[in-house]
Structure formats: structure tokens, C-alpha cells
Design a protein that fits this description.
Serine Threonine Protein Phosphatase 5, Tetratricopeptide repeat; kinase; 11 strands; ATP binding; EC 2.7.11.1; cytoskeleton; mainly alpha
């Protein structure tokens, strides 16, 4: 059973027998001889928030259009690729939602869409038709084959002349819209498309609204009467939005790349407020903060001059390589735009000064100080640029030299002839620039852009924000240390600088690794950037002095090895294992030759990480224990703390009380070491999270919830609520709540998790696979299978778009969809998908991988429910052989498959053979997860059913009594009802008609059957066959 996080689940995965299983279908409700390891409950209503934020299942047709596939998703609606049979052409079909029940909002949407349809210009995506679909408005528009302007900019180095040419073409589209009385309100590179025919088109007028007089823009005026009231949800106070990525859309917009064959760039998502807010609600904070005008931040009506401002922000950024207004977080952007001034263009830029002056005018804070309209700006940008000053320098120098004025030229080229002293504290800026300055930033953008992934821009933005924040913190530490160098000993100064140098090497290794990224690494990048090393330890004087520094002759070799180890650690964090074992061996050989013990201890820690990711848990545990021992002996407190944290989960194998006790002890050790390390917040969060996972694994759900709540609270205080790091910690709380059956709160917390991921990333980013999987399982547990299917299909769409149909991260999403179909009773659909997984993974003939074994087991159970018993038995036997070969004969998955084989044997009339399977499964379960674990109960139920089938009710009493006790602790009504009815049957058939002394307060058999029947009926339709089998028992006379 899986209990630790995996990459496919975005750091955390649902665990425990109730909330999810790694083994696929194993028995289950709906069979007449159920073992039920994949659990489903029917609730009176859907789980809270189970459907929030997910896409609707695509309709086959909208009006006359045949829907082909979903290509975009946002808070305002969804975009489909569709076929127009009337005009025989492919279109992009945007379906935009209005306020539920609001006729005014619907009419306004349609009026605005019709206004867009009247606009025809070669630089604007054409709108062909407009209509209604239920409460939504559909907009059929031009389907563009190409890429976004942002991707075009990031794909390779571009000349300023070519950049200006494309922007001017986009500006012509904006100017045409303004003349038609329309304002875009969200102009940015993501909303400009470059077709394969090199046409430039402004797209996604999702935030468009008419200007006040329908012609030229005028001064900002009051909102229209029907838009004067602004819902508090739409106000999005800056205090709540302060940590949002300034490159994400707030307010409301469908996907930026409307009509692009493969949606390129980010999928802007709404910020706070309802996703069904009207397009033109006045006073709402609407747009993308990085490109918004001052008047938009002040919630004044936006006009054409607002678009001009956004256009100039985008053009400045494209020409000069950085945005005109400094700031990484939203409140910093708001302050800079509304109160500050734009940064002047760099003096050494090849872009002509006249172009810079035109852009700066367009960036004026007051709208009246900008150009009167886009035409005025475009005319200013069209002025022929003078020859670049850098190109004139050689000519000027030649004149000067020819005149014998070399001294004058030298004076002209430098500000002073006197040598300028170098401030040692300025070196920090140069070092951080080498790690994350303009050149590394541009190189990373080119690397991500070259992959042509729909989510590359979003990942790049998240990585950039994380690295920007870390770089500023590092620079501040460096400056403080340097400025106080005369107030501390040279020894302490050197130690602090060496510590900062090591942390910088780790970040340089991280950036270098991202520069070689593939699709999977780009998808993981936003998560990986949250794991950058903290700098607090570089200020801990006692910790720095506790570790013996290398001798003078070892300084350079140790530095080189630390750089190599930093590269290893970066690859471990990203799970890039190819060739890593050999690299570790090379580092070890050199480290042993040098003999510097602190480095050797760190290397053992890295070897533990490699063993753990490789699946060798015995080796991982041994390395962690060794590294912990070395760290304690060397005074390397942070390494000792990190290894203790890892041992909370690693020093036990599976759920059992002994393993839980070890986890508690390591948690206590880690708490003590944390105090010695200054109680770093990241360590305390991880300590509580890890202990909570082990508690959940051992069904101590309430205690697990307490630990996870503490972790969430501390993460919110440390990192903020709107951060991926906090959302991932909250996901662990969701899992604990789900396992404890507290579904309402789990749903609410999960809504918060999904919301953060969608706001920080976008609705189609692969990192959403983890939260969506959790929401799918939660809905599944609540019996809301329609909601579960929506999220399952969304997961599959995301994974297929990101990685392809046969990728290792795509196939588990197809498996999830198949499981839901199976639980819905769509067994033929489930069978088709299970077989498709085996075909796509190349395991039709031979099951090999973990996925293949699980899928084979699930297919076996589906075939059983279809009545194809011979095929079911054959598939389960293949899965058993593969599991014993790949994972060992005593692995838990073997027990699960044996339970299914017992089920099939009884259905074929071989009760004795089934009993043999279940008894072997029981032995494996008791050895691996303990005698009271929910998985053990499935084997006990199977044994009880087998003994009843053999006419041995007396012998069935003991296993069924045990199974009932285990299931009473778990509390699932269907499973407990099943155990109670089977126990009632055993007691009736063995003439134990009254409760004996050993039974305590147990009711008589008929009453026990009645209690079981009530639970089975309450558990929903999947348990109907069990309820029907129990009815005669409950109806028996006393």
C-alpha cells in the first residue's frame, strides 16, 4: 500500500484504505461476494466543493457546431475546437458563463460578443457568430494555427526591429478595436497570436467592454447604472491578493490563446471572486497585474488609454528584457504602478532613444499625459530610428585617433581617468547576477520556450518569482555580512561567506538543471523552486563554528566537491536518476581521497536520497542512520536534523505499531535538534507533516489531523496562504480528513488547495494532477461518482496534453477514469480503458511494472463482474506471478490479488480453493500491515465466506468477528454492514442465537442482521446486492 508522496501526485497522494489505494480494484461493493478494497460511499449529496473549478464534460454539439476537443479553460468559461458544418471549417468556440439566473448579465454578454463580431481587421481574431447555449453565451471565432507572442519572444533571441514590427501590427489591431468602440482591458503577449503564416492577431477579448460613447475614449467616468453595484467578492482587496503572481489574470478571463491549435502560454485564471462574475462588472479588479494601468488598479473604468498603457508595458519588457515597474509580488506592482515611476530604458540598449521616449509617454501615470489614442503612439513608434549609438562609436573613435586625440577619446569613453576602488560588498551583486541575472534568466526562457509546451510560460513565471525572492534574500544576507565585516572576527566572516557561497552553488546547480529541462521537469519546476535552500543557518554562529572548517590546502578541493554535490542534490530533488549513481561514486572516490568528514557525512545523506527514490528502502534507512550518526559526531546539526526528519517515515516499513513508535521517537529527536538549529519553520512543518502521514498510515486519523493542522498553520504564518508550498501542506490535511470520514471539511480545504494551484499556475498545468486526484478520490469516497469522473477526465486531458497518451504520468490518469467507470457500473467502459492502459504501456502480453500489475488486477475484478470468470482468473494469475516476481511473494499487492482469486474461486464453486487463497493473503497482511489493519479485514471476510460456503459456520465466527471489530473502527457503513450480516448468518447457522459472555453487548443475530441491513441500504446502490442477501436474515423470526 502506498503511503508516501509520489511525483505523479504533486508531492502528496491520498493514503489509507479508505481514501485511496495503489492496488486498483480489489473486490468491492457491487459484487455478490465482495472484498471491497476500492471503496465508494453514497452520500445524501455531493461532497463539499467536489466539483468546484473542474471542467464540464464536453457536449457533443453546441448549436450547429460539432465539438471536437477542449483547448482552453478559465474562470469565465471554456474554449473548444469545433467544426462548423454550415461553412465547412474549423472554429474556436468559446462558451462564456453568465451569472446564474441573471438575464441582464446574459444579455450584456451577448451584446458585447455581437460588438466583437462587428469588428473586422487583419490584426484581430475574427468573430464569426454569436448565440446562446443554456445560461451561457457561445462565440465562434477564427481558429489560428500558431503560437502566442510570448512564446515567440521566448523561443529565440529576436532583434529589436523585428519585435517592434510585430508589436506595431498588434497595435493596429488594438487601434481598430478602439475605433469600433471596444476596449480590450487585458492586453499582454499571451493575448497576441502569431500564425504560421506570420499574421499577428490580437486575441481573447474576454475582458472587452464598450467605451462610454462608442467612439474615442474620454475621461474615466462613473460606471453604468446596471453595473454600479459591485459584489464584495469582486473587490479582491490587495491584502488578500498580495502574494499572487503578477503575471496571472485576476477578475476573469478565459484562456488567453483562444483559437490556437495547441494552447500556448499561460492559462490566465481568475483571482478571488466568483468564476461566474459578469464580463463587464464595473469596479472589479480585472486584468493581469503585470500589465495593468493605474486606473485599473484604482478600479476606475478602463478606456483605450488603459490598453495603450498595457501595450507599452509589454513592449518595454520585450525590448529591454525586464518590466518597466519593479516588483515581484502584487502589492509591489500596485505600489510601483500607482505611486512610482517606470524605470528608464537602459542607456546601453540598441533600441533608439526615440522609441524609448514614446514608450515612456505611453506609461504615464495620468491617462491624459499619454498619447491621445493608439494611432498617436503607433505614429511615434514608426519614426525612422537613428543609427544606433553603439554603431557610431567606431567611426567617432577613428576620427579622434586620426586627429591624434587618443587621450580625448579615452576621456570620452570613461567617467574618470582615476582608477576606481572596488567595493568588496558589490561583489555580491555580481555573484547573484551570475546565478540569476539577465543572462541566466534569458537562457532559461529560451530553454523552456524551445520545448513548445502549453504550460512552459506559467512554469517559467513561477520559477522566476521564486528565484527572484531567493536572490533578494541572498543579496540582503551578503550585504549585511559584508557591511559588518569589521564588527566580527575574520574567522566568523569567512564562515558566513562560505555558507552563503555554498547556498549560491546549490541554486546555480538548480538553474543549470532547469536549463536542460524536458517536459516533465518543466512541469515540476514550480514545485522544485519552493525547495531552494534556506539561508537562516548562515546566520547561526554556533552552528557555523561547530563544523570544523577545511584546512587551507583543502579549501579548493572541498569547494569543487561541494559544487559537484550541489549538482547531485539538484538532480535528486528533481528525481533525475539517469547516470546519477555513477556520479555519486565519482564524488565519493574524490571525497574519500580528501578525507574531509563533514563533506563525507553530507554525501552519505545524498546516497540515502538516491536509495529512497530508487525504491531501496533498506539501503535508504541504513544510509540515513549512518549519516545521522556522523552528523551528531561532527556537530553538523542541520544534517542531523534533516536525517531525523527523513527517518520519521523511512525507519519503518508499512503500517504497524512498532513502526509508529519509531516514527514518534524520531519526531521527538527532530524536535530537539530543531531547537538546536534555531527552530527553522521548514523543519517543524516537515516534522508534523511526516508524523501525520505515519499516523494516517496506522489509522490514527484524529491525531494525524491534529499534526497536519499544526503544519498548515505554521506554513501559512511562514510562507502565506497563497503559496504552492502551503497548498501542498494543506493537501496532507485533506488526506487525513478524508480518511477520518470528515468529508465536508476535507472538501472545503481541498477547494482552497485547488484554488491556489489554479491561481498560481493555471487550470491545465500538470502540477494540478495531484490536487485533482485528491478531489476525485474524495468525491469517489462520498459516492459523488459524476463529480469524480469530471475530475478524472480533466486529469487525463491535462496529462495527455502535457506528456502524450502513453507517458508514465498519463497512464495512471486513464486508470483513475477506468476505476470510476467500474464503480459506476460501466464495466465495459472500464474494461476497455484497462486494456488500453496495458496496450499503451506495452504490457498486453506480460505484466511488468507496478502500473501493469495494478491494472491487471483491476481488469481481473472487472472481468469477474462481467461474469467472464475464466478470463478473470487468468488475468489475476498473471498479475500474481508478475507481482511475486517484481515485488516479492510477501508484498501486500500479492495479498490483494489473492483475495480476488478467492472471490473468483468461490464464484466458480471452488470454495476450498478460495479459502486457500484467502488464508495465504491473511498471513501476508498480518505480517506487513498488522492484525487490525483494514486490509486485513478483507482477507478475514473472504475466509468467513469460504467457511460458510463449506458448511463450517462455527469456524467462520472467529474471522468474521475480527473483521467486524476492524471495520467498526473504520466506520464505513457498507463494509461494516457486510461484516455484520455475514456474522449474523454464521451465528444463525451455528445456532449461536443469543449473545454469549464473550460477545459483550452484541445483539442477537436477527437484530445484528437488521443493523447491518440498515447500514448497507444507507451505503448506496453499490451495496444493493449485499442488502438483498441480508434481507432474509433480518426478516427471520426470533
Amino acid at each position: 500500500m502506498r503511503n508516501e508522496p509520489t511525483r505523479e501526485d504533486a508531492t502528496l497522494a491520498p493514503t489509507g484504505s479508505e481514501f485511496g489505494s495503489e492496488f486498483g480494484s480489489v473486490g468491492g461493493p457491487g459484487s455478490d461476494d465482495s472484498l471491497g478494497v476500492t471503496h465508494t460511499r453514497d452520500a445524501s449529496g455531493p461532497v463539499a466543493g467536489a466539483k468546484s473549478g473542474g471542467p464540464e464534460i464536453a457536449p457533443d454539439k453546441i448549436a450547429r457546431f460539432v465539438v471536437l476537443e477542449q483547448i482552453g479553460l478559465g474562470g469565465m468559461g471554456v474554449v473548444y475546437a469545433a467544426w462548423d458544418p454550415t461553412l465547412d471549417r474549423r472554429v474556436a468556440l468559446k462558451l462564456v458563463r453568465a451569472d446564474r439566473g441573471s438575464a441582464d448579465a446574459h444579455d450584456r454578454l451577448q451584446r458585447e460578443a455581437q460588438a466583437m463580431a462587428r469588428l473586422s481587421h487583419p490584426n484581430v481574431v475574427s468573430v464569426f457568430d454569436v448565440g446562446s447555449h443554456g445560461e451561457s453565451v457561445w462565440i465562434a471565432m477564427e481558429y489560428v494555427d500558431g503560437m502566442t507572442l510570448r512564446r515567440w519572444l521566448n523561443s529565440e533571441a529576436r532583434s529589436w526591429e523585428r519585435i517592434l514590427e510585430l508589436f506595431r501590427a498588434a497595435g493596429e489591431g488594438l487601434a481598430a478595436a478602439h475605433l469600433a468602440g471596444l476596449v480590450h482591458r487585458d492586453f499582454k503577449p499571451d493575448n497576441v497570436l502569431i500564425g504560421t503564416d506570420e499574421r499577428v492577431l490580437v486575441a481573447d477579448f474576454g475582458l472587452v467592454r464598450p467605451t462610454h460613447d462608442g467612439s474615442a475614449p474620454g475621461p474615466a467616468g462613473p460606471p453604468e447604472d446596471d453595473e454600479a453595484q459591485v459584489d464584495a467578492h469582486d473587490r479582491a482587496p490587495e491584502a488578500e491578493l498580495s502574494s499572487l503572481d503578477p503575471d496571472l489574470t485576476v477578475g476573469g478571463s478565459t484562456h488567453a490563446a483562444t483559437g490556437v491549435t495547441t494552447p500556448a502560454g499561460a492559462h490566465p485564471t481568475p483571482g478571488r471572486g466568483r468564476g461566474t462574475a459578469p464580463l463587464t462588472r464595473a469596479g472589479a479588479l480585472v486584468g493581469t497585474p503585470r500589465y495593468m494601468s493605474p486606473e485599473q488598479f484604482q478600479r476606475s473604468p478602463a478606456d483605450a488609454r488603459s490598453d495603450q498603457f498595457s501595450f507599452c508595458v509589454a513592449l518595454y519588457e520585450a525590448l529591454y528584457g525586464y518590466p518597466p515597474f519593479a516588483g515581484a509580488r502584487l502589492f509591489e506592482i500596485i505600489t510601483a504602478v500607482t505611486l512610482g515611476e517606470p524605470r528608464p530604458p537602459p542607456r546601453d540598449s540598441p533600441v533608439p532613444a526615440s522609441i524609448g521616449r514614446a514608450i515612456m509617454r505611453g506609461l504615464s501615470r495620468e491617462p491624459n499625459e499619454r498619447f491621445a489614442d493608439m494611432r498617436g503612439l503607433l505614429d511615434a513608434l514608426a519614426v525612422e530610428a537613428p543609427r544606433d549609438q553603439l554603431h557610431r562609436w567606431p567611426w567617432l573613435l577613428a576620427i579622434l585617433v586620426a586627429a591624434g586625440l587618443a587621450a580625448a577619446s579615452a576621456a570620452w569613453l570613461v567617467t574618470s581617468g582615476e582608477p576606481q576602488p572596488i567595493d568588496v560588498c558589490e561583489k555580491g551583486r555580481a555573484r547573484i547576477a551570475d546565478a540569476w541575472g539577465p543572462e541566466p534568466r534569458a537562457a532559461l526562457a529560451r530553454s523552456f520556450g524551445a520545448l513548445e509546451l502549453s504550460y512552459a510560460d506559467t512554469s517559467l513565471a513561477a520559477v522566476s518569482v521564486g528565484l527572484d525572492l531567493w536572490s533578494r534574500e541572498w543579496a540582503a544576507y551578503y550585504a549585511t555580512t559584508c557591511a559588518t565585516r569589521h564588527e566580527q572576527s575574520s574567522e566568523l566572516y569567512d564562515l558566513r561567506m562560505a555558507c552563503l557561497g555554498q547556498r549560491l552553488e546549490q541554486v546555480q546547480a538548480f538553474v543549470a538543471l532547469l536549463g536542460q529541462a524536458d517536459a516533465e521537469l518543466v512541469s515540476e519546476a514550480p514545485r522544485l523552486v519552493t525547495t531552494l535552500p534556506t539561508l537562516d543557518s548562515c546566520a547561526d554562529v554556533e552552528a557555523l563554528r561547530a563544523i570544523e572548517a577545511p584546512s587551507a590546502e583543502l579549501l579548493e578541493p572541498v569547494r569543487g566537491l561541494r559544487e559537484a554535490l550541489a549538482r547531485v542534490q539538484a538532480r535528486l530533488e528533481a528525481e533525475r536518476l539517469n547516470g546519477l549513481e555513477a556520479e555519486l561514486a565519482r564524488v565519493r572516490e574524490q571525497a574519500e581521497r580528501i578525507g574531509y568528514e563533514p563533506l563525507l557525512a553530507e554525501l552519505v545523506g545524498a546516497e540515502a536520497g538516491f536509495a529512497g527514490i530508487s525504491g531501496n528502502r533498506e539501503r535508504e534507512r541504513a544510509h540515513l542512520l549512518r549519516a545521522h550518526e556522523l552528523a551528531l559526531g561532527l556537530g553538523h546539526d542541520r544534517l542531523a536534523l534533516d536525517t531525523a526528519l527523513a527517518l520519521i517515515q523511512a525507519d519503518n516499513f508499512g503500517p504497524n505499531e512498532q513502526g509508529l513508535e519509531l516514527a514518534r521517537r524520531w519526531s521527538t529527536v527532530a524536535a530537539g535538534l530543531s531547537r538546536r538549529n534555531g527552530q527553522p519553520a521548514d523543519a517543524e512543518i516537515e516534522r508534523r507533516r511526516s508524523l501525520g502521514l505515519v499516523l494516517s498510515r496506522n489509522t490514527h486519523y484524529l491525531e494525524a489531523i491534529e499534526q497536519q493542522r499544526e503544519a498548515v498553520t505554521l506554513s501559512e504564518q511562514t510562507y502565506g496562504t497563497e503559496q504552492l508550498r502551503t497548498a501542498e501542506v494543506r493537501l496532507a490535511l485533506v488526506i487525513a480528513l478524508g480518511e477520518a470520514g470528515q468529508l465536508a471539511e476535507a472538501g472545503t480545504q481541498l477547494d482552497a488547495v485547488v484554488g491556489v494551484f489554479e491561481r498560481v499556475l493555471d487550470p491545465m498545468h500538470p502540477l494540478l494532477l495531484g490536487p485533482l486526484r485528491a478531489r476525485m478520490l474524495l468525491a469517489q469516497q462520498a459516492g459523488a461518482l459524476d463529480d469524480a469522473l469530471i475530475d478524472g477526465r480533466r486529469m487525463q486531458s491535462i496529462a495527455e496534453a502535457a506528456f502524450g497518451i502513453a507517458h508514465a504520468r498519463t497512464l495512471p490518469t486513464l486508470e483513475a477514469v477506468a476505476q470510476i467507470h467500474d464503480l459506476r457500473g460501466d464495466h465495459l467502459e472500464a474494461r476497455e480503458r484497462f486494456e488500453m492502459i496495458l496496450e499503451r504501456s506495452g504490457q498486453t502480453a506480460t505484466l511488468q511494472s507496478k502500473l501493469g500489475i495494478n491494472t491487471g488486477n483491476s481488469l481481473c475484478f472487472t472481468l469477474y463482474k462481467l461474469g467472464e470468470l475464466a478470463q478473470a482468473r487468468s488475468m489475476c494469475e498473471r498479475a500474481q506471478l508478475a507481482a511475486e516476481r517484481e515485488r516479492g511473494p510477501e508484498h501486500l499487492i500479492v495479498a490483494i490479488i489473492l483475495n480476488n482469486l478467492g472471490l473468483i474461486a468461490r464464484a466458480e464453486g471452488d470454495a476450498r480453493g478460495g479459502l486457500e487463497h484467502d488464508r495465504r493473503a491473511l498471513a501476508i497482511c498480518e505480517a506487513s500491515v498488522g492484525p487490525t489493519h483494514p486490509y486485513t479485514a478483507y482477507s478475514l471476510i473472504g475466509i468467513g465466506q469460504g467457511l460458510l460456503a463449506l458448511g463450517q459456520p462455527d469456524s467462520a465466527l472467529e474471522p468474521l468477528t475480527r473483521a467486524r471489530a476492524i471495520r467498526a473502527e473504520v466506520g464505513d457503513p457498507g463494509e461494516l454492514g457486510e461484516a455484520e450480516c455475514l456474522l449474523a448468518r454464521a451465528r444463525i447457522e451455528s445456532d449461536v442465537l443469543e449473545a454469549g459472555p464473550e460477545d459483550g453487548e452484541d445483539p442477537p443475530p436477527r437484530e445484528l442482521a437488521r443493523e447491518g441491513l440498515v447500514k448497507l441500504r444507507a451505503a448506496g446502490p453499490n451495496w444493493i446486492p449485499h442488502a438483498q442477501a441480508c434481507e432474509p436474515l433480518a426478516a427471520r423470526p426470533d
